[in-house]
Amino acid sequence: MEYFVNCNTSTLAPYATPLDRTKAAHLYRRLGFSASVQTIDQAVGQNAGTLVDNLVNQAVTMPPLPPPAWADWNNSNYPADDDQAGQVRRAQLQEWRLTYTNALLDNNLRDRMSFFWSNHFVTEIDIYNCNSFLYYYINCLQRNSLGNFRTFVSEIGLTDAMLYYLDGVYNNGNNPNENYARELYELFTLGEGNGYTEEDIIETAKALSGYVERGEIGCSPVTYDATKHDTGSKTILGQTGNWGYDDVINILFQQRPNEIAEFICRKLYEFFVHPDSKDDTGNAQAIIDGMANTFITNNFEIAPVLSQLFKSQHFFDDNAIGVIIKSPYDMYLNTFKETSFAYTDNTLSEINNYTRLLGQELFDPFDVAGWQRDRTWINTNFIIGRWLTIETILETFYQNSNEQFRAFGLSLTGNDGLTSNNPDVIARPIIDFVLPQGLLDEGEYEKAFAVFRSDIDPTYYEGGNDETWTLATWMTAPFQVYLLLQYLARQPEFQLK
Questions:
Q1: Distance CA 335, CA 478 (A)
Q2: What percent of the chain is helix, strand and coil (3-state, nearest 5)?
Q3: What is the pTM of this model?
Q4: Helices 109-118 and 82-106, interaxial angle, to 10°?
């Protein structure tokens, strides 16, 4: 697959042109996991600023997922028998994966962002192995996903999931553990080697000490024990005092605001606009600088930065469309959303199994650096796995209800779907909707048209008799749409968003 160089020279000035279907679909693919034809068509003709304001406001005000019945369970709530307890834990985890996957499908920006932050403030359920901790970790991600980043950093570090995952629960004042202090700077706020020293890490670990009281029953919330906190003087980022947890956060944001803003805004840019933020052919650095200035000016509120970016000419530039490789979740959930095909919890369970096979297991990134995204999603094994699994899913949809394939085609073709007997006229809008930038050239369209025509006698496409082909009336038209989608799912362009 050709690697897209970032040639986007547009600015952060507002995008003022009314949205067409391509631009509207681009917005929903990036802000969420895409949207239905109907939702995207409702956006056509709208002002980008107005639509983005609505989507951001919805995300900011959306309540977090309600707690499951087991949200506050500890080990005493599970069966005494280890095997039985394991079965209950696995069933709860499966339930929560389904709940969260449904949230990804139902919501747009809020859970796109909570998903993004889960790959920034990384934890692994396999390490801390407590479903209650997982619930409160996701709750923290959802509540803060578009909120204040400084508050977010402070809260996420005290979640039980993070305290266990990065060894905060073993950070005693007389024997400091440096894991969280290192990742706080390297991965969460500043970037590797950017504005801190090894001595800062050592001193920060001392200041963060004391959150070590784990209770007598496993899977219990961690509490602070003042007797396990280092009360000596510490020098952090040039500031000396008897610092504690809150002091670390205050010093970090007071002393390194520019570094934090640059690091986070670059990561947001690479996630939402283009994976290449350092190429000289575009003006990505100017965009990131503008976002960082907005971030600092707004006291590290996340929503204003996203609003500015998503309303901009830079975001809607043609060079920003179809240049990011879909993650496994993007590939599956985009297909679900865009087709509006009916699915069940069993289907979503299959999706969660497939994403795991393709390197993206929900709640379980492979290390603290998280999934590396974009080109790492494509290798020989993964691309074959993508083809086979998406084909299996489409086959399941077809077996469950083939008429929904006709309905999908008609939703994109309008009156042509009712009256046109030209299959190429019908196939083109389907192709252009499923693929962000369409196919490479007319020769590639001809190949797709041939698949869509199937083995139907050409005379039925010529009109003028009682058996003229149309998408709306031809008995096997749903199968033609199915064949076309199967073909498109193997094209390089299908892997892009």
A1: 17
A2: 60, 5, 35
A3: 0.96
A4: 130
